[in-house]
Design goal:
globular; 36% helix; 24% strand; single chain; Nonspecific Lipid-transfer Protein, Chain A; alpha+beta
């Protein structure tokens, strides 16, 4: 499943919404997020990829692939997102080392660290195809 595709998001929703550990960590989260995966034309990714979603009470209730206002916008090069998805870099490290740029309150985002780490671990279980030269 191609990263960010409808098929990928449907699987992400199924995996995340079915996980008791994630639910416990995220049950008080009611936020919207946009991931802006920045273009890397030199690696076969000509345009930014937008992935947005809403968490309401520990469940993904909506996702989209367009630009719209959200509580947080997390952006960075495709390579960084790839490294996170492959387990080569942790999401919190990527944020605190400024490999990913954050629009929104970083302290507020970091208070949900446990949920973020579990979210990424769950996404890493999805058979994911990557864009461009990333395999």
């Amino acid at each position: 499943m191609l990263l960010g595709s409808k098929e990928w998001w449907e699987k992400a929703k199924e995996v995340v919404n079915g996980d008791a550990e994630y639910f416990e960590a995220a049950k008080n989260i009611h936020k919207t997020y946009t991931f802006r995966v920045e273009a890397e034309p030199e690696n076969g990714i000509p345009n930014d990829i937008l992935m947005g979603y809403k968490i309401d009470g520990g469940k993904i209730v909506e996702y989209w692939d367009a630009d719209r206002p959200t509580d947080f916008v997390i952006s960075g090069p495709y390579k960084v997102w790839y490294q996170i998805m492959k387990g080569e870099m942790g999401p919190i490290k990527a944020m605190t080392m400024r490999k990913l740029a954050i629009k929104g309150s970083l302290p507020e985002l970091l208070k949900d660290t446990k949920a973020t780490i579990r979210w990424v671990a769950l996404l890493q279980t999805i058979p994911t195809e990557f864009h461009g030269n990333y395999r």
